[in-house]
Every structure is written in structure tokens, then in C-alpha cells.
Structures
1.
Amino acid sequence: MKNSKMVQYYYLGRGAISHLQELLDNKRADEEKSFVVLVIDDYFENKNILDLSYLKQQDLIIYADTREEPKTSYVDQLTNLVKTKEHLPVALVGIGGGSAMDIAKAISVLLTNPGPSEEYQGWDLVKNAPIYKIGIPTIAGTGAEFTRTAVLTGPTKKLGINSDHSVFDQVILDADLLKTVPIDQFVYTAMDCYVHNAESLLGMINDSMTIALAEKASELIEEIFLGEMDHEKLLVASSMGGLAVANSSVGICHPLSYGLSIELGLHHGYAICIAFNQLDEYYPQVKKFKEILKKYNIVLPKVINDDITDEQLDRMAEATLKNEKPLSNAFGADWKNVFSKEKVIELLKKM
Ligand code: NAD
Ligand code: ZN
């Protein structure tokens, strides 16, 4: 039985981001010295979408480059930048998708724990309490706003800082922030939620809370993408999916997507879609997923094409098979006897 940590507070509603100022001001013990750090997806730089006029001179805004998914080296570099200040910040805010939010989550942990981020990739390796942190999604699906992980890509592995200390203290869910997301990216990230739910539901590690949350989140995603688009409902589905997967594990699709991402540099949601599209033999949800792609005129390319060498395929299969926990969630403890390297390569070749 697990003692599950959750986000303590959340605001939900259009315009909810207007509460950020009071949340930050409540943390400032000293008007002149207390400072906050905002990690904002660089899409918002010079766009006049976010009103940050209330920030103080001493505050630090970091516009995070999310062209690549967060790397351990990048997070270490940003942590060192914050450390050049005389004190620790009183709050850290992550505004963006899974990438910007995970960077903020990781920095909040690294500011109070020694050593580079790579040392904390894994489960429950963080000892000291982190800096207070707030998550504000501007695209929905990863569930990063509600999970206990900050996913980072290191030199050899893509693995999260899985810890109760990675959980945001406060979340702000404001549908207005999602208005500018391009439609294809919107679908890729939302499908991450759909796939988390499928993997939780069909896996072996779950409990009645996970099942209830994942079932409802899937139903919402189907309603939104096959019926009427509703950004607020999507934020709710993403949050529920995050909570569900936090108490469960991903399954077959995520390990395959990690292989694709590490070798080919594909973004998470996109790699998830390419992998899930070929997993009908494991997940009945692939049928609805294909209907959603069709409705939004999204045609996924074949990424494992003639340019891919056998060595690359081998590395992708190895990267997939490193994911023991998800694969044992999907197939059980003897997963190695069921899901062979040959099978992984056969699936990859279809993608
Ligand atoms: P992302 O954060 O990588 O952003 C994708 C793109 O959308 C970027 O180009 C970004 O600039 C753009 N974008 C974001 N908000 C926008 C807006 N409002 N308008 C226009 N463009 C906008 O995408 P993501 O899919 O949310 O996150 C993927 C990352 O999340 C991966 O690194 C993945 O590993 C991680 N992840 C984390 C968790 C977790 O629990 N921590 C779970 C799943 C995935
Ligand atoms: Zn995911």
C-alpha cells in the first residue's frame, strides 16, 4: 500500500492565473530581498500574453528553451544560474507544458539538495525539502502538473526525479492559456494523457483510485476530441490522468517511445503517438485514437524508414527494454519471456 502525495492546492477557471501575484506576495517575507523564479516556456517571450508587470526587480524570469526536452545538463545550468543569487528564492513557478513544468520541478529540488540532477534520476533519492513551487500548464496532457516526477534526459537515460519532493505545492489551471497551442501539438500532448490512462488501466499496478481516475480521464478525452473541444475539460482530464498514472505505471507504449525519442530526438507526445498507432494488439483504445487522428487530419509519418540502420534499431530496442517497471506493469514479473528484443524490433519496424 502506498502513501500517495497530492498537490495541496489548485485554482481552476478562466483567468485563474490572476491569483499568481497574491500567491507569490504571500511568500515574500522581505519586500526587497525575497525573490521568486519563474521558468516560462520561451514561446511566451515577447508575446504580451502573460501579465507579469507585478514582479519585483529582484525576481528572475528564465525563458526555457523547449525545442529539446529537458536535459540534465540544461537543468544543472539553470540551477547554477539561480544559485548565483545571494539567497534561495521563496518560490519557483513553472509556466508551460511538461517541459517547462518539469524544469521548474527539478530546479526546486536541486536548489536544496547537493550534486547534479543526474544523481536524482530514479525513485525517492531526494532527501531535503525543496523550494515551494507552483505549476501552471499552458498545454494539457502530460499531467506533469499533478505527478511526482520531473522527467529529464541524461547522457544515458530518460528518467524522472520521482519523489514526493517533486510534487507542486500549488497548481493553477487556466483554460485561457491554452488558446494559442497549434492543433497538431495539442493532439500529441493530449494523446499522452489518453495513453497514460490506457497503460494504467491495462497494467497490473493500479488501485481503485487509479482505475476511477483513468477511466474518467479517458472518457473526457474521447468526448473532447471526438465531440466538442473544451480546454477546461482537457485541463481536468490531464490532471486526472496525471494523478492516475502517479499511482500506477506506464506500460508498453512509453518504453517504445523512449527508444524513438532518445535515438531520433522525437518529442514525447509525438513519439507516443507514433508508437501507440502500432499497438492495436495490446490496447483496444488504439481504435478511438486513430479516429481522433483522422478527425484532426493528422497523418503520422513512418519514422523507421530505409535511412534507419540495424545498429540504430538495436539501440532503440535496448533503450525500450531498459524500462523494467513499465514492462513488468504491462506483462507481469516474467515480462522478459513474453516481450523479447525480436518483438520490440518487429514493432519498431512498423513505426
Ligand atoms: P512541451 O512542454 O515540450 O511543449 C511542446 C511545445 O508546445 C513547445 O514547442 C512549446 O513551446 C509549445 N507550447 C506550450 N504551450 C503553448 C501555448 N500555450 N501556445 C503555443 N505553444 C505552446 O510539451 P508537453 O507535451 O506538454 O511536454 C512534454 C514533456 O513532458 C516531455 O519532456 C515529457 O517527457 C514530459 N512529461 C512529463 C510528465 C510528468 O509527469 N512530469 C509526464 C509526461 C510527460
Ligand atoms: Zn507520457
2.
Amino acid sequence: MLGLAGLPLGLQFTFLDPAADACAAAVGRHLEAAYTDPDALQELARTCERVTYEFENVPVQAAAELAHSVPVYPPPRALEVAQDRLREKQFFRSLGIPTAEFAAVDSRQDLEAAVAHVGLPAVLKTRRMGYDGKGQWVLRAPDDLEEAWEALTGNSPLAAPCVDAASGALLAEALVPFRRELSVLAARDTSGEVVCYPVVENHHEGGLLRLSLAPVPGLDPGLEELAHTYVRRALEALQYVGVLCLELFEVDGQLLANEMAPRVHNSGHWTLEGACTSQFANHVRAVAGLPLGSPQPRGWCAMVNLIGFRPDPAAVLRIPGTSFHWYGKAVRPGRKVGHVTVCADRPEQVAERLEQLRRHGVPLPERAEAGLFGR
Ligand code: AMP
């Protein structure tokens, strides 16, 4: 999608992707190699004027090395902070961005003290390599600690062992009784200009993003402004270039930062049709040293992820204001293989169109049926 956004600007792309079936190969040259492959990195440095990434587990070392020869945006420091949940939370706090209570857990002995600090219920998370809800365990009672420890440090058949947990690098966080999950995307260009997209409401199931609504129905304008202030602080602190996503919990009329993604984000896919300039176009513009475009919404929009499921595109496209995006990936349970955007002039119209989508078999989160836009 970054490549598609860059082609009309006359840009050409080389994609480093270890996957043989990289979907980006359709819009540029594909280097099939590991992210750390020295020859591939050298080839990027030799042939590219700018380098960016859209996967947050790209090894920091590879990005930092490339940055000696070619501008790498967003700056590798953003990757470094975002890859470690502890550093990330400390970073937010250092900028005056509130978070849930948290405590580092470096050993089994630390766990009781950490949980005493954050209180129960809590979430125990691996510090690294967690995504889409993986590498997390909810603690509700003191008896859960042992099982969670076993699961996250790889000794349990109940959960896939998590890469870094063997070294004991975990984080305990208070479980936030949030009203809803929000995210805010913003782009910063090489001259320091910033544009902020409207705040988005996100619905997850099984740790995966299912649905985003933009702009958030009924959000207090004060919270919208606060979200923009927080994301701007993060952009400035990192001297960031590109699109950054900040994920937030709305709780008791407050915002708590959960995590950030130093890249274009799934909760910004709605911008392809729903905003004047998409997150992809603005990311590419920022990285290429071009001016940013307007982040204004064109109306009301919902983005529905297609997870392990391919609906009939014709049925989807018959619904007015609806777009179908297919990533060309093999369909597997739990895999994001495409998304649908539903746009309209009025929130109720989006709700009606979502309902039509559901009738065509596209699964929507439970709460979507309660008329999300009607609140
Ligand atoms: P994360 O990988 O941190 O984005 O977490 C995945 C999902 O788990 C989030 O989108 C939330 O739904 C939930 N979650 C994570 N941390 C917390 C928390 N401290 N309190 C409540 N829910 C959480």
C-alpha cells in the first residue's frame, strides 16, 4: 500500500521482504532476503535514496546500520523504543503521557512485587516481540501467577513460548477497565510540519483488530485534542519523520497510552478512502521529503479487517460507499488477508452499510451490532 501510494508521485521502490510471496512485489523490485542479510542491506544502501519500514520487528541494528549510508525514516530510535514495552512506557511517562501502572519483571522473584505494585487484575506481557495480543497473560488472582510465568517463559503447552521471555524480560501492567480503545495517527515531515488524523475507535477480538470507526463517534473534543497533543509530543521527542500511531485506552474520561507503532498502522487503513490524504500517501511524502497532505476525514468511515476469510468481492462492492482491498496472501485462520472500507456522509448510513456487509457473511465484532455509530 505504501508502494501504491508512491507510484503516482513518480517514485520507484525496492522491497526487502523475506517472504517469497511478498505482495509488494507487484509494485516494485523484491529483494527476497532476511532483514539482516548484509548483501541485501548493502543493495538497499547502494540503490535507494531513502529507506523506510512498515514492520515494527525489523531488527534495530539493520536499520541503524543502513542509517550510516542513507536516510532511514522513521528514525531507528523509534523502532528501538517501540520494540521494548518497558522502554516504551517509560518514554510515554517521560513525556507526561499517562499510562497504566507498570513494573518490570526480570525474574520469578520479581513477579509478586510487581503485581503488588500494579494491583490485580493485571496483565503480564513479554517486553519484546509481542503483537496482535500474543505474549500476554491476564492475572486475576494470586494463584494465576505461576501459570502465567510458565506460559510466558516457554514451559507450558498452553501458550507459544515468547522469544525474549526465557531471559525473564517481562512487564506487569494494571488491567485497564477501558470504555473503549482508541488510536491516533499523525505524520511529521522532514521540516517538522505535523498533521494529525482524527482519533479512531478500535475493536479487537482474540487480540486482533477487527473494526475501526473514524472519526470516533461521540468523542469529547477535549480528548481528541489531548490525543493530538500526546502524539505530537512523541513525534517531536523522536525527531520523527513518517506516520506514527499511538494506541490509547479511554477510561473515566482520561486517555492512557498503551503502545505506539512507528509505521503506518492497520487502524489507519480507513484513510485510503475516508481521508483527504491517506496515511500511506503521507508516510511516503514525509519519507521522500515532500509536503504533507490534509488528514481531514471525508465523512464517516468504518474499516473491517478480513481475517482468514474472503467474501465475494462483487457482493461487497454492491454496497454503496464500500471498497474492497485484497492483499494477495494465502487465506489462513487468524491471518489478516484484506480489509473493507465503508464510507458515508452520515454515521447512521455507515451503520446500515455495515449491517449489509454482515448479511453478506463478513464477520463483525459483537458490539458492532449494537449500532456503534448510534451512541
Ligand atoms: P497490546 O499488544 O499491548 O496492544 O495488547 C493487545 C490488546 O490487549 C489491547 O488492544 C487491549 O485490548 C488488551 N490490553 C493490553 N494491555 C492491556 C491493559 N493494560 N489493560 C487492558 N487491556 C489491555
3.
Amino acid sequence: MIKLGVLASGRGSNFQSIIDSIDRGALDAEIACLVTDNRSAYAIERARLHKIPHVYINPAGYASRDIFYRDIADELQFCGVELVVLAGFMRVVKKPLIDAFPMRIMNIHPALLPSFKGLNAQKQALDYGVRIAGCTVHFVDEGVDSGPIILQEAVPVFSDDTEESLSARILESEHRIYPLAIKLFIEGKLRVTGNIVKIGD
Ligand code: GRF
């Protein structure tokens, strides 16, 4: 059974969707560790409720980002993590962590990449006036919301949408495709060549 390490900074609803998928037998995985950079992240409460080991790593305690990420990588490796899942981790991951888990770190972004990278992606989509929005699961490289795309799901944008209503619609998709992408990884169905992910046996 594969061991997952989840990194989260806040609410943790994607973390919860992964917990739920495991609990109902849809994902053959174990969450070995939750790492957060925010002492008051609600994700910690979710970990407690489900008896998932969790650790808070205080970014303020580090002289450099590289050492911060080296420590996170050490923690994940210590827990035997094989796939790192970023679930609302509000930081750009740096080289020491990426090098420790090459093509073994996934992220979910609430937009159809490569559109609307960075913060407030749903607001960016509304402000641009797109008719279709969505979310993307991708492998993490050193860029911001770049890296090979694994799965995407589109949702409609309605004329009376607010940032909240669109975000809620996208979040439903997120909770569907993140566990699915992890399942594909576990089953060995993801082949990465350059920036392209092929899905197959
Ligand atoms: C999600 O919208 C995700 O796409 C983005 O951050 C948000 C995290 O939400 N990366 P949650 O903490 O998983 O509820």
C-alpha cells in the first residue's frame, strides 16, 4: 500500500476528499503524514479526527527556504512517503523538496492551466470573462503552477457567478479529480515524457 504525504496550509477540504476516498476503499493508500506550515490550519483538526500523524513546521524558524524544504523532505522521507500531495499548500515548492521526490509531487490548482496561474485563480477567471473554468492536477516542478498536467475537469461559468459560487463549483470537481489522479499514480498508469503525461497501462 502506497504511503502519501500531504502538505496543506488551510481548510484542507482536498485533504478530506483523499481521506474519504481511502476510507471507502477507492484509494489503496495510507496517509503517512500531514505537514503544515500554519499552526491554525483546519487540516490539522482533520488529521486528528482521522488519527493521521501530523507535523507543523514553522517557516519563520528558517534562515533560508532551501533549509525549510530540506527539513520537509526529511520529515516525509522519515515517514516513508512515496507520493507527496499538495492540498492547498500556499507556497512555491523549492528545489530540495522537488529533488527528493522527482515527479512524485502533485498539486491541484483551481483553474484550467496554463490559464490563471498563481493566487485567486477563480477571480482571475471571472475578471477575464471566460465561459468555462475548472481545475487541474499536475506534477510539480520548479515553476509556479507549471509541470506536467495529469487531469483537468471543466465547469461552466454563469453570468451571475460570484467568486464564491464559482469556487464552490470548481471545488466539487477538485474533490473528484484529485483522488482519481492519485489512483492513476498508484496503479502505475502515469508515464511522463518531458511535459506530457500519458495515461495508460
Ligand atoms: C483549492 O482551491 C486548491 O485548488 C488550491 O487551494 C485550495 C485549497 O482548498 N490549491 P482546501 O484547503 O483543499 O479546502
